[in-house]
């Protein structure tokens, strides 16, 4: 080989090494940024957006999503957290922390001269084995066992800003899920069937589950329409009550008052005829979908609707339509000619009520109520309220995980220590490099107990060594009791979490590490 070529070849591989190292470094930096948020004693982050908006959160996915990350490999960690949010909804910090620890181990292995492909394959095997181990220590849970579900929700809420309200929020999350669960399809759960309305004013203690439906908007009463309706017949309409518009821009030139009158009259007649048809169907509460094409309802229309004693709620979002029609047992109506009594939903009472600093419309006493649930969340200010909303979402996701896979495992890092120990044992049965890599994988998982105790202000080395000892002695549920600052049996301490959260965190983190390992170049494009 001519010397020049040899030289080039060498340079290229150095660059590849550089790309890999810098990728790993960048991803590790992201992982380090969220590490301090892990666990009940973890810190919260204040995210300040350029527009002055401030968010306080403990949720890994939210922190990462708001973080301005530009390095491509670091972005993969943001995506990783997002995937965990989609799959499990909880464990979004854990997944990133585990990924960071695995990457650190990769770096050490690479320095020792292990080929990336070997690391990648061994990690994949180790993660499969880890899931097997987790399944073997998991405890089956029955959906009838409300207490167990509440315990799981409590664990997920214990690390949140709003954790002191978990005795209220956890049962609410569990009851909401149990209410929307269909006995005919017990493995299916759509969280979109649970509507969460967040309203500032009051405290989180005032939050409640509403037996019915709540709309965040007020009733339209500028024209003096009713704000309370008993024995309501609710119509959900998708058409507009306003003069039609042409597709193309055009002008009508009006030269005298006669013509102007004619236009007004024409508009009035049109709207009046629409309102008459609505009234004729027996409808007395009208929910109007938001329209982007033209006014969903004009002032004139509101005036006639008020005269006809029809209560109006405007600005219903398109994506709420399905939930509303499911809850009220009504059908969305796309054209005024389809206003038929059988398409309306019935409720005992529709009423605008004052909640905190604002007003909402409440529908109660719904006949044939569908399998949906509504939670009215309250909080003293927007920041608390938003975090409460995110936390409730996490709790709901935890219950959804249990619906999908009905197993619980202990929390407080006991599963990670157990898996780490068993993997280390298993690595001894393997050969050469593979054994070495699996061993490194096992050690990486100890980042969870290490970080949990660090965040709780305990001595991480003492705690991890103690945990190792207990697990070796067969105490497979021993974990860190963060609140008491010691090691206890996590099942007795009622700290449990869904199996799915931990298995998916380990699997996804491994996938991400393998992806980052296999990248040896960044190709910029325009
Ligand atoms: P994530 O976003 O990953 O869910 P969290 O901040 O919620 O991060 O922390 C989750 C970790 O905290 C899990 O490992 C869980 O076992 C642990 N944990 C939660 N509650 C407790 C508790 N009461 N005692 C000890 N560990 C806990
Ligand atoms: Mg959590």
Automatic annotation (TrEMBL):
<dbReference type="InterPro" id="IPR027413">
    <property type="entry name" value="GROEL-like_equatorial_sf"/>
</dbReference>
<protein>
    <recommendedName>
        <fullName>T-complex protein 1 subunit delta</fullName>
    </recommendedName>
</protein>
<dbReference type="GO" id="GO:0005737">
    <property type="term" value="C:cytoplasm"/>
</dbReference>
<dbReference type="InterPro" id="IPR002423">
    <property type="entry name" value="Cpn60/GroEL/TCP-1"/>
</dbReference>
<keyword id="KW-0963">Cytoplasm</keyword>
<dbReference type="InterPro" id="IPR053374">
    <property type="entry name" value="TCP-1_chaperonin"/>
</dbReference>
<dbReference type="InterPro" id="IPR012717">
    <property type="entry name" value="Chap_CCT_delta"/>
</dbReference>
<dbReference type="InterPro" id="IPR002194">
    <property type="entry name" value="Chaperonin_TCP-1_CS"/>
</dbReference>
<dbReference type="GO" id="GO:0051082">
    <property type="term" value="F:unfolded protein binding"/>
</dbReference>
<comment type="similarity">
    <text>Belongs to the TCP-1 chaperonin family.</text>
</comment>
<dbReference type="GO" id="GO:0016887">
    <property type="term" value="F:ATP hydrolysis activity"/>
</dbReference>
<dbReference type="InterPro" id="IPR017998">
    <property type="entry name" value="Chaperone_TCP-1"/>
</dbReference>
<dbReference type="Pfam" id="PF00118">
    <property type="entry name" value="Cpn60_TCP1"/>
</dbReference>
<keyword id="KW-0143">Chaperone</keyword>
<keyword id="KW-0067">ATP-binding</keyword>
<dbReference type="InterPro" id="IPR054827">
    <property type="entry name" value="thermosome_alpha"/>
</dbReference>
<dbReference type="GO" id="GO:0005524">
    <property type="term" value="F:ATP binding"/>
</dbReference>
<dbReference type="InterPro" id="IPR027410">
    <property type="entry name" value="TCP-1-like_intermed_sf"/>
</dbReference>
<comment type="function">
    <text>Molecular chaperone; assists the folding of proteins upon ATP hydrolysis. Known to play a role, in vitro, in the folding of actin and tubulin.</text>
</comment>
<keyword id="KW-0547">Nucleotide-binding</keyword>
<dbReference type="GO" id="GO:0140662">
    <property type="term" value="F:ATP-dependent protein folding chaperone"/>
</dbReference>
<dbReference type="InterPro" id="IPR027409">
    <property type="entry name" value="GroEL-like_apical_dom_sf"/>
</dbReference>
């Amino acid at each position: 080989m001519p010397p020049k070529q040899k030289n080039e070849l060498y340079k290229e591989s150095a660059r590849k090494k550089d790309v890999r190292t810098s990728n790993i470094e960048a991803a590790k930096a992201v992982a380090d940024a969220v590490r301090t948020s892990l666990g009940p004693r973890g810190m919260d982050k204040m995210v300040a957006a350029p527009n002055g908006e401030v968010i306080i959160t403990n949720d890994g996915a939210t922190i990462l999503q708001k973080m301005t990350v530009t390095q491509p490999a670091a972005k993969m960690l943001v995506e990783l957290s997002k995937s965990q949010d989609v799959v499990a909804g909880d464990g979004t910090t854990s997944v990133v922390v585990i990924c960071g620890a695995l990457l650190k181990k990769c770096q050490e292995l690479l320095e020792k001269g292990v080929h990336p492909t070997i690391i990648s394959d061994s990690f994949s095997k180790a993660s499969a084995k880890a899931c097997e181990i987790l399944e073997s220590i998991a405890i089956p849970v029955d959906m009838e066992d409300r207490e167990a579900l509440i315990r799981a929700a409590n664990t997920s809420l214990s690390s949140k800003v709003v954790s002191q309200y978990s005795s209220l929020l956890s049962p609410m999350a569990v009851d909401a899920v149990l209410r929307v669960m269909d006995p005919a399809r017990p493995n299916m759960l759509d969280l979109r069937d649970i509507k969460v309305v967040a309203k500032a004013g009051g405290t989180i203690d005032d939050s409640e589950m509403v037996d019915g439906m709540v709309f965040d908007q007020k009733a339209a009463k500028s024209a003096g329409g009713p704000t309370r309706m008993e024995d309501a017949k609710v119509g959900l309409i998708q058409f507009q009550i306003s003069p039609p518009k042409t597709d193309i821009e055009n002008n009508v030139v009006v030269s005298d008052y006669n013509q102007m009158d004619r236009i007004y009259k024409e508009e009035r007649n049109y709207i009046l005829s629409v309102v008459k048809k609505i009234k004729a169907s027996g409808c007395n509460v009208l929910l109007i979908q938001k329209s982007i094409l033209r006014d969903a309802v004009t002032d004139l229309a509101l005036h006639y609707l008020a005269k006809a004693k029809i209560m109006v709620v405007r600005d219903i979002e398109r994506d709420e339509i399905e939930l509303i029609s499911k809850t009220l047992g009504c059908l969305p109506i796309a054209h005024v000619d389809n206003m038929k009594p059988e398409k309306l939903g019935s409720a005992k009472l529709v009423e605008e009520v004052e909640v905190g600093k604002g007003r909402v419309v409440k529908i109660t006493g719904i006949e044939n109520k569908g399998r949906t649930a509504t939670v009215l969340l309250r909080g003293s200010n927007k920041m608390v309220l938003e975090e409460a909303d995110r936390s409730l979402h996490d709790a709901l996701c935890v219950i959804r995980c249990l619906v999908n896979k009905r197993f619980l495992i202990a929390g407080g890092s006991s599963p990670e220590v157990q898996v780490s120990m068993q993997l280390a044992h298993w690595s001894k049965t393997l050969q050469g490099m593979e054994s070495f890599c699996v061993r490194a994988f096992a050690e990486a998982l100890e980042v969870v107990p290490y970080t949990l105790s660090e965040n709780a202000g305990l001595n991480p080395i003492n705690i991890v060594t103690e945990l190792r000892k207990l697990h070796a002695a067969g105490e497979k549920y021993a974990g860190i009791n963060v609140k008491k600052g010691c090691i206890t049996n996590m099942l007795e301490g009622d700290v449990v979490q869904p199996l799915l959260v931990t298995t998916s965190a380990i699997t996804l983190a491994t996938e991400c590490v393998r992806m980052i390992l296999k990248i040896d170049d960044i190709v910029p494009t325009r």
